[in-house]
Amino acid sequence: MKYNATYRILPLTLLTALLVPDSAWAEAVDYGSLQSLFGEPVTTSATGTPQRVSDVPANMTIITADEIRQSGSRSIPEILSRVPGLDILQTGENSFDVGVRGYQQAFQPRLLVLVDGRQVFLDDYSRTIWSNIPVNIDDIRQIEVVKGASSALFGSNAAGGVINIVTYSPVYDKNNVANGTFGTQQSWTGDATATAKLAEQSGIKFSAGGTNANEFHTDPRPADFQTYNPTSRYAVESSVFQITPSLQANTELTYSESWANPGQVAFETDSEDATTYSIRGGLSWQSPIGLISNNNYINHTFSHAFGNGFKSDSTTQLIVSQVADQFKIGTDNFFRIALEYRNKTYWGTDTVQVFPQSPYFEQNVYSVSGSWLKQFNDKLSWTNAIRIDHQDSEQTGTLFADAFETNADYSHVINAFSANSGLVYKATDVDTLRATYGRGVQIPGLIQEGLTDTIVGPAPNVFFDVEGNPALKPTVVTNYELGYDRVIPSLFSTAKFSVYYEMNQDVAGFDAGSFLRTVGSNTYIVLQSVNVGNSQGLGGEFELKGSHNGFRWDGSYSYARVIDTSGVESAVGYEGSAPQHHVRLLGGYTIGPWELDANAQYLSSTNMLRVTGLAGGFAPTYTDGYVSFGGRVGYAVNSNVTVAVSGIDLTRGTLQESPYPAIERQVFLSLTGRF
């Protein structure tokens, strides 16, 4: 039941009380000082220990605040489109999905998305509602992108990669900023962040904003259902308090709401509004036995979705409690051990469907993980991590009258093991080699395992019956990768190469297990997620990036080939979902108060699954390759105020990027003030 989560969270809370006399979460990190010290972006998210991005035992790209500004975009997925190996699927003005290395679809389940370490990935379908992320673009210090299976380092949802959005600290950064942006599609965006220093090593930060726009006017298909004009609102409060020299407390409150027309698992578009509340708090204590941290948060999301013939109201809730200890043995062995409890619940409140039903499904996940970073010398380091997840599931609530299953049929257990290993060798001052292995686990979402919902079908006495599948296995992703980075002083650049091979076992296909059954005079078209087979991916990326005398450049090429077994090809269609070839050219120049930036991208053709008609059904749909152009011109009026003009897809009015509705040209005028 819903109240059980309170009692299940007590063991970790009590353990924290024993380990931490006054009870903390994540120690505030002074990224600015560390970046100045190391001369390149720094992260703590992979191992818990501050590392230069070139030392991380994973394929990580860090997008800096300067690069975010120079992109001219107010959209996180559009900013991510500049990263080699990422695939962006846009299905509406503010509706996006982000795939990794050829694995692309609407409701992307393979990519874990975090904001300052808090999961914003939603466990209902296993997806991210990008327009519902409560963050001010101008308050982002950096975006960390990890490609490849990373479950042991980041969590069980990181089967294909991780996006961690790191915002400015209320302690170490004074970020007071406001932005207003107006553009085509009658769009406007307003954001503001204010930071206040409360005392030494203590501070508080407030952010709020929102956007309005008209949806693209390009033609949807008959089965598409688009009624909302895109809108979003958010508000965030975060604070850090230094209680004693060794004890730090953290709190955060967030609210976000969005209206969008996203792509769906049935390869169509529907309309959805989503509202999320979250509360987080914890402590970090520099104890005699290491840095002990406790992180606790609750995400509560209400979703109202509707399309052709259905409406659905549902609530998804996530409760997380984590305890970790980071410590050092000797001078070159760094360890982190952690315990985690997750309570995930989904309940439906369908009042407009044909049968009385109110399903309630709950998953409890107990996890233990550990990592060991061995620094052999100043050239060679080796990181190993393991994670074990134990999940038990339970269905309660009201199922529809003709259901074959009972609540007890959905009670089951999943045990999952994930691992990561990374060897980093700095052969010279300019040469770094990296070899990594990852075993990631994609645990089925709440709807895949437990939802039972019956809605109106295509004819009288014919109904769609969406059922969870308690026999569904996790998808296991195994990734092998080699990387080589070389600093080229004569070109003022760094070149990065990587090649990888990836195997996906037991891929889950939404609605892939369809069959008919008859009860009395009623016929039910049963739709159920099943494991449909395996898929393998291989490819690589090359990037040359640098700057000199006001000029900056970033050129990259990525190749991703996906090979599906027949079941995956027909039910999910990863093999044709993303371009095999992707070329990105970014360039800019700063002179005095002016910033001039331009970008061009070439993407080869795709053959993505797409709905074929009102009665459902889908088939591969070919889309030609294309070239797109964008740019930004910024002018600093003074040290505090900047005005900029930016644009996307500037060379044509509409661009058919995928079989979903075409994307329109967008042009924006923005005014940003920093105080």
| CATH superfamily membership | TonB-dependent receptor, beta-barrel domain
Return the CATH architecture.
Beta Barrel
Rg (CA only): 24 Å
Strand content: over 45%
| Basic shape | globular
What do the pLDDT scores average to?
A: 88
Characterize the biggest β-sheet.
22 strands, antiparallel, barrel
In percent, how helical is the residue content? under 10%
The count of DSSP E runs of length 2 or more, i.e. the number of strands, is: 39
Alpha plus pi helix count: 8
As for the CATH topology, it is Maltoporin, Chain A
Low-pLDDT residue spans: 5-27
Structural class: mainly beta
Please, could you describe this protein's structure?
With about 675 residues, the chain is mainly β. It has a 22-stranded antiparallel β-barrel. It has a 5-stranded mixed beta sheet with strand order 3-8-9-6-7. The longest helix is centred in the N-terminal third of the chain and has 10 residues, at about 10-20. Residues about 5-25 have low confidence and may be disordered.
Brief overview:
The protein has about 675 residues and is mainly beta.
Keyphrases for this structure?
675 residues; mainly beta; Maltoporin, Chain A; 22-stranded antiparallel beta barrel; 5-stranded mixed beta sheet; 7% helix; 58% strand; globular
